[in-house]
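Handout, section B. The chain below has 174 residues.
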Amino acid sequence: MSEITRVPLQPIAKGSLTKLWLGIVVALLLAAGFAWSQRYQGVTVETLAPGAGPMPTKDDVVLINYTGKLADGTVFDKGEKVPLPLEGVVPGFSEGLSKMQKGGKYRLFIPASKGYGAEAQRNPSTGQVVIPANSALEFDVELLDFRSRAEIMAQQQMLQQLQQQGGAGAAPPR
């Protein structure tokens, strides 16, 4: 027969339960604060509708629909079926796009340090500030397609050759 060791339960000291709950609340607030600060220090990609297949690399050109907003919700830019080379955009946008899959819809959060930083962005026509300095950016992005830069260059060369061949053998108009 095995022996059972009994440990008497001690009553909870007065005020201990309140301290326990305060500790839990403080821990939750610290965790929420940490999560919030991480959102604005690193690029965050939230999946709204998943895509499929591989993700673009820095050598690719993406075709996207997007809406760019400031933290207060002000829309500063919008585009449909826009081709963008990943190397030709701000670092945070490139980093976020490389975490997306074709056909997916995403919300991308870019901290100022990976966006435009301390440099305000102005409308070239009016000179009006469109993106204030040190602004965090938010984009809704739909990744329609992407291709490698080499593939696009090969397609362009093929089109040029076809145009040259079509122009050389054609009869002059009458």
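Note. The chain has a mean pLDDT of 87. Compare this with the example in section A.
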